[in-house]
Amino acid sequence: MGEASPALFNIFGLNVTAEVTTQWGIIVLVALLSLLVTHNLKEKPGKLQNAGEYLIDYLLGFLGDILGEVKARKYFSFLATLFIFIITCNYSGLLPGSGTITGFKAPTSSLSVTLGFGVCSFVAIQYYGIKQHRGKYALRFFKPVAIVFPLMILDEFIKPASLALRLYGNIFGEESVTEQLYNIAPVGPPILMMALSCLFCAIQAIVFTMLTAIYLDESTEEIE
């Protein structure tokens, strides 16, 4: 359970699964929507531009409450992209045919995909931390006393792993429960579960982004 779907085809010896093809589709969709929203921006925006501006304002406010306005704007591109991509992946599992149509499956229902998100967060946290502090970055692993150094290093690897496992566990669990409810009673309980999943999918994307922002704030805070 939780393993990636069987390979649909291979590219240079690498297996391409339904999770991967769905991610490709999401990337194309998000890119096209971004182009449509940002193309021909007007002082008096239309509905699509209004929706895009509302999303940006919401994310800036959300991240600003965690990081402060300066850091929120500084790291907005990474964190906003992470949130939009994850929430789109989550909601793709609620579309009709997800998991049954060949080449179409919610990416975040696979542990390998959520681990990939965790690695992206880990790399970003270390990159921005090193960029902020340069050679002094390593000092944060010796605070408050040098003896905690091994634990601090271990903690850096536990953070992305916990992010990945939390996201995978919730999305995979929701899909499994919905499937079992459908087998028991095709009408009623599965619809209720899918309605709840609409909320859970958003919450999981928010939690993943929020924790990444908190870890990013910790890695870029001033070192005394």
Describe the model.
With 224 residues, this protein is mostly helical. Helix content is 70%, strand content 3%. The protein contains 7 helices and 2 strands; from the N terminus they run ββααααααα. It has helices spanning 18-38, 47-67, 69-74, 76-92, 111-133, 149-184, 189-220, and strands at 9-11, 14-16. Strands 1-2 form a two-stranded antiparallel sheet. Strand 1 (9-11) and strand 2 form a beta hairpin. The termini are far apart. The relative contact order is 0.13. The mean pLDDT is 86.
Q: Name the shape in a single word.
A: globular
Number of strands: 2
| Beta fraction | under 5%
Helix content: 55-70%
Topology diagram in text:
Elements: E1 9-11, E2 14-16, H1 18-38, H2 47-67, H3 69-74, H4 76-92, H5 111-133, H6 149-184, H7 189-220
Antiparallel strand pairs: 1-2
Helix pairs in contact: 1-2, 1-4, 4-7, 5-6, 5-7, 6-7
Task: Characterize this entry briefly.
By secondary structure, the chain is mostly helical. Helices cover 70% and strands 3% of the residues. It is globular and about 60 Å long.
